[in-house]
């Protein structure tokens, strides 16, 4: 009992000093096109990643108001609701409902030639949970969606 407690304390110390488990930022690149498509249908993030950095590039030419893309992560069960509520949220809000707790991470909306990114900790993710990424620009999520897997 006593030995276990000592080990637990030691682990805490090491973890807080950063020496126990090194941070691992896992980078993901994804592109959106003028054809209203993501270039990936699936993103897999390994269990040992402590953070995920998603970089979204709009490889098209159309402006954001006409063919805007963002990258929005939610549980698969929540994705449709996030997209529906995003429609009414407006362009200035990146088509994300204010305070939408179903949204795990999102980038702003960009247009052709632009790049944006978002970084979030994997501590907000659960292994084995089904996640979906979408673009919440009105009318886009039916085509612009994919599976996000962690673990
Ligand atoms: Co889009």
**Main β-sheet, spatial strand arrangement:** 2-8-7-4-5
CATH architecture type: Sandwich
Please identify which CATH superfamily we are dealing with: Cupredoxins -  blue copper proteins
> What is the gyration radius calculated from CA atoms?
18 Å
Helix-strand pattern, N to C?
HEEEHEHEEEE
The top level CATH class name: Mainly Beta
Distance between the termini: 32 Å
According to DSSP, the number of beta strands is 8
Shape: globular
CATH topology: Immunoglobulin-like
Summarize the structure.
The chain is of the alpha/beta class and 151 residues long. The chain has helices at residues 2-17, 64-67, 76-89, and strands at 25-32, 42-45, 51-58, 72-75, 105-106, 115-121, 131-134, 145-150. Bound molecules: cobalt (II) ion.
Keywords:
alpha/beta, disordered N terminus, single chain, 28% strand, 3 helices, five-stranded mixed β-sheet, three-stranded mixed β-sheet, 151 residues, binds cobalt (II) ion, 8 strands, Immunoglobulin-like
Could you characterize the architecture of this molecule?
The protein has one domain (24-150): Immunoglobulin-like (Sandwich), CATH 2.60.40.420. With 151 residues, the protein is an alpha/beta fold. The chain is built from three helices and eight strands, in the order H-E-E-E-H-E-H-E-E-E-E. 23% of the residues lie in helices and 28% in strands. The chain is globular, with a radius of gyration of 18 Å. It has helices spanning 2-17, 64-67, 76-89, and strands at residues 25-32, 42-45, 51-58, 72-75, 105-106, 115-121, 131-134, 145-150. The strands form two sheets. Strands 2-8-7-4-5 form a five-stranded mixed β-sheet. The structure holds cobalt (II) ion. Residues 32, 68-69, 135, 137, 140, 144 line the site of cobalt (II) ion.
């Amino acid at each position: 009992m006593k030995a276990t407690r000592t080990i637990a304390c030691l682990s805490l110390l090491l973890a807080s000093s950063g020496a126990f488990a090194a941070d691992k930022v896992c980078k993901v690149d994804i592109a959106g096109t003028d054809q209203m498509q993501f270039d990936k249908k699936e993103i897999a993030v390994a269990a040992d990643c402590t953070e995920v950095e998603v970089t979204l590039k709009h490889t098209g030419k159309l402006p954001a108001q006409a063919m805007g893309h963002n990258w929005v992560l939610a549980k698969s069960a929540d994705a449709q609701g996030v997209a529906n509520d995003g429609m009414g949220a407006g362009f200035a809000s990146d088509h994300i409902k204010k305070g939408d707790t179903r949204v795990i991470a999102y980038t702003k909306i960009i247009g052709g030639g632009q790049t944006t990114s978002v970084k979030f900790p994997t501590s907000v993710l659960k292994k084995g949970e089904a996640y979906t990424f979408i673009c919440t620009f009105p009318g886009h999520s039916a085509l612009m969606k994919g599976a996000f897997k962690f673990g």
